[in-house]
Amino acid sequence: MKPGNAMTFFSTPAAAEIHGKVYDVSGLYVSVSGFDGLLSVGDRLDLHPLAGGSIRAEVVGFCGSLAKTMVFGDTDGLGPGSKASLPLYLGQNAMLRRGGLPVSDRWLGRVVDPLGAPLDGGPRPGGSCVQPTRAAPLNAMERARLGPRLDLGVRVLNAFTTCCEGQRLGLFAGSGVGKSTLLAMLARFTSCDVAVVALVGERGREVREFLEDELGEDARQRTAVVVATSDCAPLMRREAAYTAMTIAEHFRDQGLSVLLLMDSVTRFCLALREIGLSMGEPPATRGYPPSVFAELPRLLERAGPGRRCENGKEGHITALFTVLVEGDDQNEPVADAVRGILDGHIILDRAIAEAGRYPAVDVLRSLSRTSHRCTLPAEKALVSRARALMASYAEMADMIRLGAYKAGSDPEVDEAIRVRPAVEAILRQEREERASIEDSFAALQRALA
């Protein structure tokens, strides 16, 4: 053991370092020796390729006295005999050894990778308090209840899937249906104090387009963005979700209303699948090992209302998780598991997008499980009437298109045909247009008048 130097991954210097060696490299695995009794699952250490530099790694298991690790990058340059170093920290910085992050208000307006390294050319955002990225959800009985209804700024969501502060919603869609555009609208328009965006497995080409064109400079100032592109190692893609959740929890614990947008939970699960299969877990449902469906609720349950306070000033994490459904199958394993955990689901339909209506929300298949507690009786009646008319039209749509339906045969269908153009008009919204909750219900009332 020797005194530590300034860390490559954190500005906080290690108090000391313990050195070992790489024993074996196989696929995503790197076996390390020389740390008997000093490591546990979840610890982080640095591996040093023969050509120089360092690679962050995490302990995921053991084989006798060998620690089996997975790297946050490529294994290129690593081989038997490569040096491994375990940094040791003192006091509250000891959490850095297990992937803790020094989160602070300085993270707002910044773009970082899952390990906290800046991607926007600025200095590393730091903080005086280190928080664990793998924290447990709050005790259910210690949590506050949901807050008041939240203005999302999107007309179709405000009216038909009205949500509360602290609610968790799933956005289910196939590729190319408009998820990113809708997420950017929510980040710009939602009435929240802070927004946190996690781009998990996103295309590298689209990151700057999302930040500069979709999100915009004003919204970026109150937003922390965590990026792990599709070419990143599975451990980095997994860590992006935990880092974003940790940042959101930091601001929630200050009593703020936080909007967490994660795109996408599916790619988080795919990263977990790669890690699980590499560890030798048996594939289960569609190749996903059991650990994926054990880890998923541990992440999603961390969002929601904060700890109950006697002064009533609890913070909330209102979370919207996108689910990239394979082949537009809404019942594939990840979508089915996520839908059972969250407090509502929003379905984006490819046929609606192809017809040119954005956001392409399928109102009849979308649901908010808390809308009953945050809407007025008159608003509930208005939404119920609109859904009934839209369902009547959908049931007779084929006959109407073929001209087989005769006016006067059914008064309900007649009314549905009459109001359909006005209802479709309020469901359509330009990406630069904001609509408040009051305006959304007023527009729906005019459409049904």
UniProtKB/TrEMBL annotation:
MF term (GO), any: ATP hydrolysis activity
GO cellular component: cytoplasm; type III protein secretion system complex
CDD domains found in the cross-reference section: ATP-synt_flagellum-secretory_path_III_C, ATPase_flagellum-secretory_path_III
Stored SUPFAM superfamilies: P-loop containing nucleoside triphosphate hydrolases
Coiled-coil boundaries: none
Pfam families associated with the record: ATP-synt_ab, ATP-synt_ab_N, T3SS_ATPase_C
Keywords from the UniProt entry: ATP-binding, Cell projection, Cilium, Cytoplasm, Flagellum, Nucleotide-binding, Protein transport, Translocase, Transport
GO biological process: protein secretion by the type III secretion system
Places the protein is found: Cytoplasm
Annotated ranges, domain AAA+ ATPase: 165-353
Chemical reaction(s) catalysed: ATP + H2O + cellular proteinSide 1 = ADP + phosphate + cellular proteinSide 2
Sequence intervals crossing the membrane: none
Protein name, as recorded: Flagellar protein export ATPase FliI
Source lineage: Bacteria, Pseudomonadati, Pseudomonadota, Alphaproteobacteria, Acetobacterales
